[in-house]
Specification:
6 strands, alpha/beta, 13 helices, six-stranded mixed sheet, 2 domains, DNA polymerase, domain 1, elongated, 43% helix, Rossmann fold
Length: 298
């Protein structure tokens, strides 16, 4: 069964921008520290010899179709610095020059693009490794889908998701629907934290199950059970709204065929002028594989 590595680009671009020195600039003086770090990340990943890869980029960093459902979604986030925003497009150029298929959309987030690809690739009998530090991807973990936090080298299968969050991958969406997520400004139910959310889902299994038998909450053997029922009653609308916000879409515009995602090696005709423009000549020597096509041979 082939394995496809699906890369969530944004966390690694942000990480590079804030960890790679700003003194790294192109010959024309523009900052390229995020591009430099992202390129190194791709090279490190390629050295692990993956056979199939795709990369998903965020078309917009703070908005998506979810803002039509809840205008406050990610509203607390500041816009990225101009020096960083200018480097996102170049990171996608790097991806293209490395002969890696990439996807981007203005309406759907990278999570949704990856979720859509996972659905399609599973129907093509492929295993998927989602390369990201985003906890939302835990909802996609299954027998043939794992989550790999590359920077920390942590891999999550279903058992490790349960160990980290206290709920199964199938319950992750309801878990965050209950407790909310301050990172994305998802409200959840006011006053419900991770321990209460775990306890509720352990007993009722799903958000629907909780609200179908809300009176039973008060008799649960957990601290504050009586007041918890009242919190859930008051927060019902926000709980189901939050579930919609947390759920990764599976209908984004990202059509994939397994053979299109094969690792073919970097394209010399694209890499050489781009790396020269960026001042990355020293990185070129560390690229582990080059295209075997006439135009891409080293």
């Amino acid at each position: 069964m082939p394995t496809v590595h699906l890369i969530d680009a944004s966390p690694y671009i942000f990480r590079a921008y804030y960890s790679v020195p700003t003194r790294i600039t192109a010959p024309d003086g523009r900052p390229v520290n995020a591009v430099h770090g992202f390129t190194n990340f791709l090279i490190q990943l390629l050295k692990a010899s993956p056979t199939h890869i795709a990369v998903a980029f965020d078309g917009r960093l703070t908005t998506s179709f979810r803002n039509q459902i809840y205008p406050q979604y990610k509203a607390q986030r500041e816009s990225p610095p101009a020096e960083l925003k200018a480097q996102f497009g170049v990171c996608r150029q790097i991806t293209q020059a490395m002969n890696i298929v990439s996807f981007i959309d203005e309406k759907y987030e990278s999570d949704d693009l990856i979720g859509t690809m996972v659905k399609q690739l599973r129907s093509q009998d492929a295993e998927c490794v989602i390369v990201s530090s985003d906890k939302d991807f835990a909802q996609l973990v299954s027998d043939n889908v794992t989550l790999w936090d590359f920077a920390r080298n942590r891999r999550f299968d279903s058992a490790r998701v349960l160990g980290k969050f206290g709920v199964t991958p199938e319950q992750i969406v309801d878990f965050f629907a209950l407790m909310g997520d301050s990172v994305d400004n998802i409200p959840g139910v006011r006053g419900v934290g991770p321990k209460a959310a775990c306890a509720l889902l352990t007993h009722f299994e799903t958000l629907d199950g909780i609200y179908a038998d809300l009176d039973a909450v008060a008799s649960l053997p957990i601290r504050g059970a009586r007041s918890l029922r009242e919190k859930l009653l008051a927060g019902r609308e926000m709980a189901f709204l939050s579930r919609r916000l947390v759920t990764i879409a599976h209908d984004a515009p990202a059509q994939v065929k397994l053979d299109q995602l094969e690792v073919r090696g970097a394209d010399k005709n694209l890499i050489e002028p781009l790396f020269q423009e960026l001042g990355f000549e020293n990185i070129r020597t560390r690229i582990p594989r080059w295209s075997e096509s006439p135009g891409g041979a080293a």
